[in-house]
From TrEMBL, chain A:
<dbReference type="InterPro" id="IPR001851">
    <property type="entry name" value="ABC_transp_permease"/>
</dbReference>
<feature type="transmembrane region" description="Helical">
    <location>
        <begin position="12"/>
        <end position="31"/>
    </location>
</feature>
<keyword id="KW-1003">Cell membrane</keyword>
<dbReference type="Pfam" id="PF02653">
    <property type="entry name" value="BPD_transp_2"/>
</dbReference>
<feature type="transmembrane region" description="Helical">
    <location>
        <begin position="87"/>
        <end position="107"/>
    </location>
</feature>
<dbReference type="GO" id="GO:0022857">
    <property type="term" value="F:transmembrane transporter activity"/>
</dbReference>
<feature type="transmembrane region" description="Helical">
    <location>
        <begin position="37"/>
        <end position="58"/>
    </location>
</feature>
Automatic annotation (TrEMBL), chain C:
<dbReference type="InterPro" id="IPR017871">
    <property type="entry name" value="ABC_transporter-like_CS"/>
</dbReference>
<dbReference type="InterPro" id="IPR050107">
    <property type="entry name" value="ABC_carbohydrate_import_ATPase"/>
</dbReference>
<protein>
    <submittedName>
        <fullName>Sugar ABC transporter ATP-binding protein</fullName>
    </submittedName>
</protein>
<keyword id="KW-1278">Translocase</keyword>
<dbReference type="InterPro" id="IPR027417">
    <property type="entry name" value="P-loop_NTPase"/>
</dbReference>
<keyword id="KW-0472">Membrane</keyword>
<dbReference type="GO" id="GO:0005524">
    <property type="term" value="F:ATP binding"/>
</dbReference>
Automatic annotation (TrEMBL), chain D:
<keyword id="KW-0812">Transmembrane</keyword>
<feature type="transmembrane region" description="Helical">
    <location>
        <begin position="273"/>
        <end position="291"/>
    </location>
</feature>
<keyword id="KW-1133">Transmembrane helix</keyword>
<dbReference type="Pfam" id="PF02653">
    <property type="entry name" value="BPD_transp_2"/>
</dbReference>
<feature type="transmembrane region" description="Helical">
    <location>
        <begin position="216"/>
        <end position="237"/>
    </location>
</feature>
<keyword id="KW-1003">Cell membrane</keyword>
<dbReference type="InterPro" id="IPR001851">
    <property type="entry name" value="ABC_transp_permease"/>
</dbReference>
């Protein structure tokens, strides 16, 4: 069988996921339950959406550190807007997220500034904005719209809505990446920006779009999360962006851009969730060790993947 | 009201255990029957404890340890402890997962008061009693959760204000070192302090409010800036002891003398109480983290069919020049 | 068809184009020639919307146009193959070919059709194999053919080719000329940039000569004698050029019958090399011949320690060299990479830093570099190789391709090597510089260096080399020595090897 | 420069496109000082300036290492965790005296640097991923070592190191100054410095030119980690307590911001040491200004965002079109 570089990378993450899941299934009865699977998936959904957008950004060779802040901001404005009904609760966070993403995109595409630093600035900016609309974070808006709550907490065929939504968006994202001109542009910009420009790819427009998409999805993830929690929590904790980046990288997408796939990102997101779940299954692991385990795990997966890729590069075509 | 002795005996720090202050105004009551749960034996029960933040600062260390020690003392062998590492979504996932695993009693130190819908939905279906400690959860009593055990943060702020008013003789300018933004504790300790100052000492002006994020280093940095831009400041209200200790280091660095600037803070850690003894801190309002005995006692009562109050507010000590020396023995 | 009128373009510190005009008619192959740094690539980038001209205007079919992006130029029917291969290495061959104009089915890209058509199209250019593999896995020449196919696939009105043959094999050059003839027949205008004069005279109708950013001549190709063309390019009179000659290689070099300075034996690397032996004696120039993908580059890289070997040894002056680039450099091996942009220059660093790069430890005491000693070598080599730059502190990325190549050569020579490995040393270099480089190679060999020369230019190879080792699929298939070192001999050897392959 | 090499001196006059990236940060810094001199009470007081220097010192030290790493087209996200690690190690060995304790902390830095460098240069991981793993794991290890508890530091030598003074300036500031000079010399004058920018400018080319690429990369990450350890020790000595969960929090972002604002591009191949110091000072003064004027954190954060964008916009490399 012929495998492309991408192929091995994404299957690498899936293979590790399968392995870890298998170990979990065998070792922990508590891991084997349907309830546990549901909990795992629904909690992974917001990170999944953020990582989905992040994958697009990273494929163009960029990075988006602002997603964590936008996620929180999206949740807060969604809860606030829910007093005006379901549609407002859904649309406002999308608009706000997309707006922040647009700022990122325009700055990256038009000013030749490094995405790392641009989005680091908007990380601060979006957090400031979130605090500004919540009286320095002290006001927690409660979700007023029942349909909106259902979007976060209801289920279809036993699977929660956020999980369905994430699944559908991942499939859609895959189609966009592989089967549309925009998707090709994303890979081309990340693979070789200069060449892409010379080949007539609208580089700036592509960059603007991926950051806007990333912001939009982070805002949406925030909205879904608020719908589920029933309020616009302001203290969701920092570091969501690093989790998303880790998930994408574990999924085999090159941080330098140009190669990767969404199936890998799903595997990465689930892998982070499974690890966390397994640590909890063990029961009494001190926090400090949890971090050591997560860090070491990240290193091991990525090292394994890099080695796989290298093996691949000397194999015959 | 007068405190009623409820603390467990036999711990190395019996005198330090929490005491209930009141049943909490306006709170309802709840029984096992009303809650709809099942009678269980705590010893063999599966118990889950969800901690919100890393056990690095003395408060969290003492809190988790207290729960674990008490469980061990009661012979509870099946205790699961999770730590959300200050990530709210992780805490929700942690608790949901513990419910999936079949815990029969949940003790939660919530990171945030709102946002617990998914947990309640899941817990209600299985009728699992939830005891929240140190921070309240905004939810329906006796349906969503059993009881809240903890301090009244607003009241803590008010007590700090009274202490400050006394220290400054009702006049002067005061700076607030705020806790982490968005945190309920920050919000209430700030509101209590400001309201009380406005009421009892209108001549005290609050001139500066910056966050020190509950951390010693940031507290120190902010205090250093403060001392340069407002050298005439007469008091500093730190919303936790760590920031107060940072402010002390800043004062020392700026060549100030002990007692120059009156510092009042909340928590009651040993370091801060020592600070009073050394003369750098004026007063400390305690926030007692030793929830273990009270929490399990409440659970025992509940499963025995007795009535449990919605709010069990503990009485917090206060340390000042007079009580600090002795207080060192009970400070955590 | 396409016209540029009085176009000027200034870069920080350099006036790259000064009131240059160019006019391409339908069905005409228009040669654009000039020394390295004359402004050819810049003019092309102005024509195709990469750069905005500071002054002057562009006309397409008589109408004034302005391209803000390459995309707009492409939409207007200007198709370009840029000097450096500009494709996306990580994307598949087919996706590269179709990027921006993929076949659709119900709004989505039809990958099946795309791959099928790509395979068919590329077969016409001599590229077989799976079109779904990443483009980066193709040899440079094959990538160039993909770029060519891509440029020609659209309904272009003008096709611009900036040194398209620099990484092509003779066989592929023929393919290219076939394509050009086709295009000419269809009335498409072609701008053709090349330093290979033979090619120009073979296919071009018209010629425009640039020198130092100015147009110095424009007229029918055939009316301009070769010597006059060279004289125009380098700005000297015909007589001087005649007396100096055009090729830099002198007739005979004397090779001492001594022990080899370089001895590589049994080089093996999975899928790339299958036992290659090369030995070079002091003063000898050994050519490596073969078709595209024969393993010449890999051989050179293996000797230079840049390709991990499964088996085989490399010895310099009898001493074994451990397989790393550092050890190789220390042992006296200096390698000029095939891909100047990717593996040669450090574009952000100055000419000075680039030249001194490999010899820093030698130019230092206790880890502290001696600026004085660096200045000495930099001055020496900039003069000796006549490197054209605003000064030693200009970033190398701003130099023209040829001058970048010279900077690299200077870096190699600064290490006082015993063995020089030159992979396509004159690729993209103008006639003047080419002769300089060639005579330099001769001179260095004369001083007792061993030289390994890889060149796709058969002429250059046979003139420059004393002996030619012919490779195919990573093994040595023939060796030409003495009188057998001729272009015909070389082609014959390659052809014989190919036939053997077919028989098998 | 010799005449022979300059065949066509076509250089024009001073070009803003080159000047601004190189010196923009100093202009911004000067402007901010001027503004503060007018609007902020006591700003020009020596005590105040001293406090700013003291507060910025650890950031500067970490940023110096970060600048060097970024010069190789890398990034080191683990610096904050390394600071925590140093903070955790110090109290353990403080019983043997301040010097052995500090030595052990630095040794810890060397180990982390070797791991980072090994993962990047040896295994070939992308720097951001390798150091992300250590960001997570490093702080975890620090917490494990320190048993997750805050420890008070009472060792007189160490406290003196954190708060003592020489000629009116704290040791920490002298130390940051000395390290700046050393790193500047390292980058400009030494073989290692030249090699590291070449590695950042074009790694395959450096490799082919025979440069010891791995050694350079490992060296750079070790340097960064050791500098971060020094900053960690300094932080501990200054706040007189060791809290592995707090020390160094988000320092990686402050350091990267200082480096980039100072005009070093994230794409490598260039290191501006003095610019980095100026960048750190600029961000320090911005924060100080916002605190002194008691702005709410929401506003303060948005203002910081705008200033970072503006500073980096001015310092960016301009493309030619
Ligand atoms: N981006 C740039 N910035 C500054 N100077 C540049 C830039 N690009 C080209 N130049 C300068 O413009 C002049 C013309 O360069 P150009 O690449 O057009 O030459 P060329 O004729 O294509 O040479 P070659 O045959 O070597 O490819 C050179 O002096 C070069 O140094
Ligand atoms: N990763 C790889 N897997 C399989 N084959 C490869 C790989 N990399 C290179 N090759 C093949 O190895 C062969 C040798 O390539 P090499 O670049 O050495 O050829 P060359 O003779 O130098 O050609 P050129 O004229 O392009 O320089 C080619 O057929 C190339 O396609
Ligand atoms: Mg050119
Ligand atoms: Mg080759």
């Amino acid at each position: 069988m012929k495998l492309s570089v991408e192929g091995v990378q994404k299957h690498g993450a899936l293979a590790v996921l399968a392995l870890v899941t298998l170990v979990g299934l065998l070792a922990f009865p508590g891991f084997r339950t349907v309830d546990n699977a549901g909990t795992l998936l629904v909690n992974a959904a917001p990170l999944g959406l953020i990582a989905l957008g992040m994958t697009f950004v990273i494929l163009t060779g960029g990075i988006d550190l602002s997603v964590g802040s936008v996620f929180v901001l999206g949740g807060v404005v969604a809860a606030w807007a829910s007093q005006y009904g379901f549609v407002a609760a859904l649309v406002v966070p999308l608009l706000v997220g997309a707006a922040v993403g647009l700022v990122n995109g325009v700055l990256v595409a038009r000013t030749n500034m490094a995405p790392f630093i641009v989005t680091l600035a908007t990380l601060l900016g979006a957090r400031g904005l979130m605090r500004a609309v919540s009286t320095e974070g002290s006001t927690t808006y409660l979700v007023e719209s029942q349909p909106f709550k259902t979007l976060g907490n209801g289920d279809l065929l036993g699977v929660k809505w956020p999980v369905w939504i994430a699944a559908v968006l991942f499939v859609a994202g895959s189609v966009v990446l592989n089967r549309t001109g925009f998707g090709q542009a994303v890979y081309a910009v990340g693979g070789n920006t200069d060449a892409a420009r010379l080949m007539g790819v609208p580089v700036a427009a592509t960059q603007i779009r991926v950051y806007a998409l990333s912001g939009l999805l982070a805002g949406f993830a925030g909205a879904l999360n608020a719908a589920r929690l029933g309020s616009g929590v302001t203290v969701l904790g920092i570091g969501t962006e690093l989790d998303a980046i880790a998930a994408v990288v574990i999924g085999g997408t090159l941080l330098t851009g140009g190669a990767g796939a969404l199936s890998g990102t799903i595997a990465g997101v689930l892998l982070l969730g499974v690890i966390q779940n397994l640590i909890n299954q063990v029961g009494d692991v001190p926090t400090a060790y949890q971090q050591v385990v997560s860090g070491a795990f990240l290193a091991v997966v990525v090292v394994a993947q890099t080695s796989l890729t290298r093996l691949r590069s000397v194999a015959p075509v | 009201g007068k405190a009623e002795e409820t603390g467990g005996t036999g711990t190395d720090n019996a005198a330090a255990a929490q005491q209930t202050a009141s049943a909490g105004p306006g709170g309802g009551t709840c029984t096992l029957q009303q809650y709809g749960g099942q009678k269980i034996d705590l010893k063999t029960a599966k118990v889950g404890f969800s901690q919100s933040e890393k056990e690095a600062n003395p408060f969290r260390t003492a809190e988790t340890k207290s729960i674990q020690d008490e469980a061990a003392k009661l012979g509870i062998t099946n205790l699961t402890v999770t730590n959300a590492d200050s990530k709210f979504n992780k805490q929700i996932a942690d608790v949901e997962q513990m419910i999936d695993q079949g815990v029969q009693l949940l003790v939660v130190a919530p990171l945030n008061s709102d946002g617990w819908d998914p947990v309640f939905k899941k817990a209600a279906a299985k009728k699992i009693p939830i005891i929240t400690i140190d921070r309240k959860i905004n939810a329906k009593h006796c349906t969503d959760f059993l009881t809240f055990i903890g301090s009244d943060f607003y009241e803590q702020g008010k007590r700090a204000a009274r202490s400050m008013a006394k220290a400054l003789d009702n006049k002067g300018t005061v700076a607030i070192l705020l806790g982490a933004p968005g945190n309920n504790v920050t919000t209430q300790r700030t509101a209590g302090f400001k309201d009380e100052i406005a009421k009892i000492a209108p001549n005290i002006k609050i001139d500066f409010e910056q966050t020190g994020n509950f951390s010693r280093e940031e507290g120190q940095k902010v205090a250093e800036q403060l001392l340069q831009s407002k050298p005439g400041i007469s008091g500093v209200y730190a919303e936790n002891d760590e920031m107060a200790l940072g402010a002390v280091t800043a004062l020392k660095g700026a060549g100030r003398k002990a007692g120059d600037v009156k510092i009042v803070s909340i928590d009651g850690t040993r370091g801060a109480v020592q600070g009073i003894v050394d003369g750098w801190i004026y007063g400390v309002v305690e926030s007692n983290p030793r929830f273990g005995p009270l929490a399990f006692q409440t659970a025992t009562k509940f499963f025995a069919g007795e009535t449990v109050n919605e709010n069990i507010i503990i009485s917090d000590r206060e340390y000042d020049q007079a009580t600090a020396k002795d207080g060192l023995a009970v400070a955590y | 068809m396409l016209e540029a009128i009085d176009v000027s373009k200034t870069f920080p510190g350099v006036r790259a184009l000064d009131s240059v005009s160019l006019s391409v008619r339908p069905g005409e192959v228009h040669a654009l020639v000039g020394e390295n740094g004359a402004g050819k690539s810049t003019l092309i980038k102005v024509l195709t919307g990469v750069y905005r001209p500071d002054a002057g205007e562009l006309r397409l079919a008589g109408e004034r146009v302005r391209f803000a992006t390459p995309q707009e130029a492409q939409r207007a029917g200007i198709s370009t193959i840029y000097q450096e291969v500009n494709l996306v290495p990580l994307m598949s061959v087919a996706r590269n070919l179709f990027l921006g104009r993929e076949p659709r089915r119900r709004g989505l890209i039809d990958t099946v059709t795309m791959n099928r058509v790509a395979a068919e199209t590329l077969r016409g250019y001599g590229i077989t194999g799976d079109v779904r593999r990443p483009l980066g896995q193709l040899a440079l020449g094959a990538q160039q053919m993909v770029a060519l196919a891509r440029a020609v696939m659209v309904d272009a009105r003008v096709v611009i080719m900036d040194e398209p043959t620099s990484s092509l094999e003779p066989r592929e050059v023929e393919t290219l000329f076939g394509v050009i003839d086709d295009l000419r027949g269809k009335g498409i205008g072609i701008v053709y940039v090349s330093h290979r004069l033979d090619e120009l005279y073979r296919i071009c109708d018209h010629v425009t000569v640039l020198r130092d950013g100015r147009r110095v001549h424009s007229g029918p190709m055939q009316e301009l004698p070769r010597l006059k063309l060279v004289a125009l390019m380098i700005g000297r009179d015909v007589e001087t050029v005649r007396s100096e000659g055009v090729t830099g290689f002198s007739e005979e070099s004397q090779v001492a019958d001594s022990t080899p300075v370089l001895k590589a034996t049994g080089l093996r690397s999975r899928h790339k090399l299958h036992g290659v032996d090369v030995a070079v004696r002091p003063g000898e120039v050994v050519g490596l011949g073969g078709l595209l993908g024969a393993g010449r580059t890999e051989t050179v890289r293996a000797i230079a320690g840049a390709l991990p070997l499964d088996e085989g040894t490399v010895e310099v002056a009898g001493r074994p060299v451990r397989g790393s680039t550092g050890a190789a450099v220390k042992a006296g091996i200096a390698a000029l990479p095939e891909d100047r942009k990717a593996e040669g220059i450090v574009p952000g660093l100055s000419v000075r830093e680039n030249i001194a790069l490999a010899v820093l430890p030698r130019m230092s005491r206790a880890g502290i570099v001696s600026e004085k000693r660096i200045d000495e070598i930099v001055t020496r080599f900039m003069e000796r190789l006549r490197i054209k730059a605003a000064g030693p502190d200009q970033p190398v990325g701003e130099l023209s391709g040829g001058n970048q190549q010279k900077v690299l050569l200077a870096r190699l020579l600064a290490t006082s090597p015993k063995v020089l490995l030159l992979d396509e040393p004159t690729r993209g270099i103008d006639v003047g510089a080419k002769a300089e480089v060639q005579s330099l190679v001769d001179e260095l060999a004369g001083q007792g260096l061993g030289v390994v020369l890889v060149s796709s230019d058969a002429e250059e190879l046979v003139e420059g080399a004393d002996r030619v080792v012919v490779l195919r699929d990573g093994t040595v298939v023939a060796e030409l020595t003495g009188d057998a070192v001729t272009a015909d001999g070389l082609l014959g050897a390659i052809a014989a090897a190919a036939e053997k392959e077919v028989e098998k | 420069m010799t005449a022979a090499t300059v065949e066509k001196p076509k250089r024009l006059t001073v070009h803003w496109g080159r000047w601004l990236p190189a010196y923009g940060v100093y202009v911004a810094l000067a402007a901010l000082v001027l503004v503060n001199a007018v609007i902020t009470d006591n700003f020009l007081a020596w005590e105040n300036l001293r406090i700013q220097l003291v507060q910025v010192a650890p950031v500067v030290i970490v940023a110096l290492g970060m600048a060097v790493v970024i010069g190789t087209e890398g990034v080191d996200l683990s610096v904050g965790a390394v600071m925590a690690l140093a903070a955790a190690v110090v109290p353990i060995y403080l019983g043997y005296g301040a010097v052995p304790a500090v030595a052990m902390a630095l040794l810890g830095g060397v180990v982390v640097g070797l791991v980072n460098g090994g993962l990047i240069a040896g295994v070939g991981l992308q720097p951001i991923v390798a150091t992300l793993a250590l960001l997570v794991a490093g702080r975890g290890i620090a917490l494990v070592i320190s048993d997750g508890k805050l420890k008070e530091i009472r060792n007189a030598d160490l406290v003196a190191f954190g708060n003592g003074e020489l000629l009116g300036l704290p040791y920490s500031v002298w130390l940051a100054g000395a390290l700046t000079v050393l790193v500047a010399l390292l980058v400009r004058k030494t073989v290692f410095g030249r090699q590291l920018v070449a590695v950042g400018g074009n790694r395959p080319a450096a490799q082919l030119a025979g440069l010891p690429v791995r050694r350079v990369l490992i060296g750079v990450y070790v340097l960064s980690a050791v500098l971060a350890s020094i900053a960690g020790v300094l932080a501990v000595a200054r706040i007189q307590s060791s809290d592995a969960s707090q020390v160094g929090q988000l320092y990686e972002l402050s350091a990267i911001t200082a480096v980039v604002v100072g005009g070093t591009p994230l794409t490598g191949g260039k290191v501006r040491v003095l610019g980095t110091v100026a960048g750190a000072l600029l961000m320090q003064l911005v924060v100080a200004t916002l605190i002194k004027h008691d702005l709410r954190s929401s506003i303060a954060e948005m203002v910081q965002a705008v200033i970072i964008v503006a500073a980096v916009y001015a310092a960016r490399e301009r493309g030619t079109r």
